Every structure is written in C-alpha cells, then in structure tokens.
Amino acid sequence: AKDCHRGTAICFAPEHEAQLRSHAVIEQALRSADLETEFSLVYQPIVDVAEDRVDAYEALARWTSPTIGTVSPGDFIVVAERSGLILDVTRALLRRALADMATWPAEVRLSFNLSAHDIASSACRADIMEIVRQSGIAPGRIIFELTETGLMRDLVDGRDALTELKALGVGLALDDFGTGYSSLSYVHKLPITKLKIDRSFVTNICEDTASLNVIRAIIDLCRNLGFDCVVEGVETVEQMLLLRSAGCRFMQGYLLQKPLPRDEIEALGGSRLPV
Ligand code: C2E
Ligand code: CA
Ligand code: CA
Ligand code: CA
C-alpha cells in the first residue's frame, strides 16, 4: 500500500479498507439494507470422508451493500449483533436457506449459524421454530451452529435456550470449539450433538505433533460423549490424510470445497475427496 499514491487519492489494502468502514458506517448501511437483495448465502460442504459423501452444507452469509461495497461476515455479524439487527438478518437468511434445500437430496442436511443474540431472545427462538415448521423441511435435517464464546456469557440461559430449540428435533453444533476458554468444564452440560474443531488446531498438524494430539483428544472426547465431530479448515491433502488416520470422519475446508452459491453446488457430482 506504500507505493500506492495516485494523485491525491490514497489506495488502501482491503484490510485497511475494512477498518476505515467503521462500525458506525457499517451499521448505517445495515439499517437501510434490503435483506432480500443485498444479502446472499454461499454453501460449503461438510464431507463424510469415511463414506465420501456430503453430510451437510453450511450456509455462510455474504453482503454487498450498494453504498459501502462488500463487507465480510466477520465484520457485519458483529455490527448486526451490537445493533440488534441480527434477528432480522437471521430470520431472512434462515428462510432463504430452507427454501434452497428444496432441491437437495433428502440425506443432505443444512448447517446454519445462529448468533447467541438470536437464541437469547425468546421471540426470536419462537420465530426460528415457526420458520422451520413453515418450511416443511424435516427438523432432523437442520443443524444449528453456535459459538462457545457467545453461548457461555450465561451458561444456564444458553443451555435452556438450546434445550428449547433442540425439542424441535434439530441438531446443535458447538462451533469454533477450543477457541473459547474452559470449554471442557461445560461441554458435557450442553444439549449439543456435535463439536466443530476450530481451524486453528489444524493449521500446524503436519509440523507439530502436539496439535494433532489435541485433535485426537477432542475426537476421543466426542466419541465418549456421543457427539459428532467436524474438523474445520482442512486446506491440504497432507492435513486430510493425517486427520483421517487420526480417526476424523467429518471434514470441512477449502481442500474439499470453498463455499459456493446455491446454483453451483447443485451442479456438483461425484467424489468429494481430492485423493
Ligand atoms: P464459521 O462459522 O466458523 O465459518 C467458517 C469460516 O471459515 C467461513 O468464513 C469459511 O468461509 C471459512 N473457511 C472454510 N474453510 C476454510 C479453510 O479451509 N481455510 C480458511 N482459512 N477458511 C475457511 P466466512 O464465510 O468469512 O464466515 C466467517 C464467520 O462469520 C463464520 O465463521 C461465522 O461465525 C460468521 N457467519 C457467517 N455467516 C453467518 C450467518 O449467516 N449467521 C451468523 N450468525 N454468523 C455467520
Ligand atoms: Ca459455523
Ligand atoms: Ca467455525
Ligand atoms: Ca468462526
């Protein structure tokens, strides 16, 4: 970015641009955003490597604002949470994802990210349940993903909210597992069905046997507690092979597939495995 002066305009690398668009600017654009046209969903497969099939697609939100351009979910979700707009975003995106599922094979599930703010609101929980009912999609085909950081602000409330959702028949995944603190002290107290091991554990497994041992330990933990276990952020063949030899069955990451728009995932067929 240093050599980037042109006339009086100064160019910024994308990471600087994101900082320039302060939360206030993002919030203003979000308040006037048309959720139906400015937001879209892309889908990334969670692959069962034992059976070489797609177990689920995770829906990931994308936003391009006509006024401030493309904003990453890492930025706009935080702003949406702080401003209370997340509930509207969640409802609109959940409706869309469930509609998109209409053309998927019945054995393929949807993994959908919820914010802790969503489930903290009993009105929003009720809406979520109503949206699921109205979609006609079997609740057993839906997994809601929640991050531990959000959930753990209040363990008891979080647990009760999850219990209410789970009664609908959906699966519940604890996302980014291992990035919060004291995960082990409460993980067995939550009504979850799945853990997603954060990609930071995967990054170094080829160089660092300790990281692989941590993943092995979490896989063991999941087996003992009866949880499914997904490893996120698998980017290389070497990582995939090591993880497979460590007993990891469900994987997600750029190696298997990047997140793609609905129409592009539908066109995919055949093996998911690069080796
Ligand atoms: P997440 O739920 O942990 O989603 C995984 C993120 O990792 C996604 O980023 C995905 O594109 C990225 N990813 C997948 N495979 C790889 C890989 O192999 N390597 C690397 N480096 N990254 C990989 P994305 O789409 O930018 O989303 C970021 C976060 O924003 C998500 O993290 C999630 O916490 C949040 N988010 C996205 N969509 C929604 C949504 O609809 N609702 C809510 N509440 N949160 C969302
Ligand atoms: Ca997720
Ligand atoms: Ca994650
Ligand atoms: Ca994350």
TrEMBL record:
Residues 23-273 form the EAL domain. It comes from the Bacteria. This is GGDEF-domain containing protein. The lineage of its organism: Bacteria, Pseudomonadati, Pseudomonadota, Alphaproteobacteria, Hyphomicrobiales. The chain holds residues 324 to 598 of 611 of the full protein.
